[in-house]
Amino acid sequence: MVDVTSASVPPVLAPPVLAVEGLHKSFGSNEVLKGIDLKVAAGERIAILGSSGSGKSTLLRCINFMETPSAGRIALDGTSIGVEGRGGAITARSGELRRLRTRVGMIFQQFNLFPHMTVLENVMEGPVTVKGMNRKEARATAQDYLKRVGLSDKAEQYPQRLSGGQQQRVAIARALAMEPEILLFDEPTSSLDPELVGEVLDVILGLSKEGRTMLLVTHELGFAYHFATRVLFLHEGRIHEQGTPDEVLKNPREERTQAFLRRFSAFHF
Amino acid sequence: MQYVWDFRPVWLNFGVLLEGLVNTLKLSGFSIGLGLAIGLVLAMGRLAPSRIVSIPATAIIEFYRNTPPLVHFFWYFYGLPILTGISLTPFAAAAAALSVQSGAFFAEVFRGGIISVDRGQWEAGRAIGMSHVQLMRRIILPQAFRRMIPPLMERSFELVKTTSLAATLTYGELVYKAMVLATQTYRPMEIYSTVAVMFFTVLFVASLGMRAVEHRLARRAAR
């Protein structure tokens, strides 16, 4: 077990499933990530906090190459993705990226369900089209995952008939159906009405009990506290502070972190 | 000055005009079908991640969109035999000119529909590991297709009217038949007016039909 009382960074016992080294990302002249180093062990649950513009979503999106890193290295199980090209940017073959993405699932703020497919078809799509699974088997797995997120009864509906919370749960089932080793959540509750946030967080918390490796960008501090094994606080494109939820959320050392948390505590009753 | 309308020559030769109409529709149907296929290929080419593919596709599209169709007709009919020794029948030359030219326009309609699909849809497809082709076929094109129907119809109607240029290649479509009849009967006013009514009737009925199809698709989309 990781000793959570003394170390500010939990020692990584197993070889990291995900390693990020010297990650930089610029959009034009705007440098969003200024050198991120991060090792993630299997089963770790990492909550990434930070004010808007701190680079937390960009970090997540660089991990599965939704954004191409401007410099640095991303490695899964010790194997680097792509090669360093001109100017430091990583160039990866599209086949390599497709394999990476079947291993690293992503859940988006806007759900992004496929509107022309039923809920069940949404969940089946990856296994059938990308993994070449036969439809019968894919249907059975999809039904399993829908059950897991509590939406078996919505299988034949079209997404636009569902509430935002239900849509996000379908999106989680869709990502799970690919059986990824790592799940990335990009502000999964930020576009939900407050009364729908709980059902999505419950599903995510349920997954955390299965020992999955997850990285989650969120503004829900209370949830981050219960969900995470490690909390990262990003500021201006760097990891400003990290540690256990107790360390970072209850006793932050850095002034920036304290200021950030104070802004949120105003809403706690 | 009082013009006396006399439609008798029109009625007496109506069979000839109908034959022309059938030829017009044959040329239109063939060119629309081939044009859509060419358009899809050109649109995919223009949107391809690789520049080796996208630049030639863009060049073809822009070239055909910005040159007069009559010139294309002449190239295929008169130019091709001179340059390559291949001579096409008036129908083949007209169909080739029309399909490639309207393919360029169709390509822009396809491209517009494709890029109008929300960025999140592209990302969601990529995030589950889809290739570019899978993403297009499974996610983007099915959603883009509905939005493309009205502009594709518009373009197809334009094409039906443009078939009249095939008259210059002596292809026996409606306008060519009308020209022949006009010189035989000295009744161009009546004949060309009838031709206009015939075009109008066909296109108007077709547009009513398409509107019904659109309506049904919209209802299905609202499920």
TrEMBL record, chain A:
Protein localization: Cell membrane
Alphabetized UniProt keyword annotations: ATP-binding, Cell membrane, Membrane, Nucleotide-binding, Transport
Membrane topology (UniProt): Peripheral membrane protein
Name of one Pfam family that matches: ABC_tran
Coiled-coil regions listed: none
GO molecular function: ATP binding
ABC transporter domain: residues covered: 18-261
Record-stated family: Belongs to the ABC transporter superfamily.
PANTHER family assigned: AMINO ACID IMPORT ATP-BINDING PROTEIN, L-CYSTINE IMPORT ATP-BINDING PROTEIN TCYN
UniProt-recorded name of the protein: Amino acid ABC transporter ATP-binding protein
Protein species of origin: Ancylobacter radicis
Phylogenetic placement of the source organism: Bacteria, Pseudomonadati, Pseudomonadota, Alphaproteobacteria, Hyphomicrobiales
UniProtKB/TrEMBL annotation, chain B:
Subcellular location(s) of the protein: Cell inner membrane; Cell membrane
Domain ABC transmembrane type-1: residue ranges: 21-210
Keyword flag tRNA processing: no
Keywords (A to Z) from UniProt: Amino-acid transport, Cell membrane, Membrane, Transmembrane, Transmembrane helix, Transport
Alphabetized InterPro entries for the sequence: AA_ABC_transptr_permease_3TM (IPR010065), ArtM/GltK/GlnP/TcyL/YhdX-like (IPR043429), MetI-like (IPR000515), MetI-like_sf (IPR035906)
Coiled coil location: none
Regions crossing the membrane: 20-43, 73-98, 191-213
Membrane topology reported for the UniProt record: Multi-pass membrane protein
Family classification: Belongs to the binding-protein-dependent transport system permease family. HisMQ subfamily.
Primary role: Part of the binding-protein-dependent transport system for glutamine; probably responsible for the translocation of the substrate across the membrane.
Protein name, per record: Amino acid ABC transporter permease
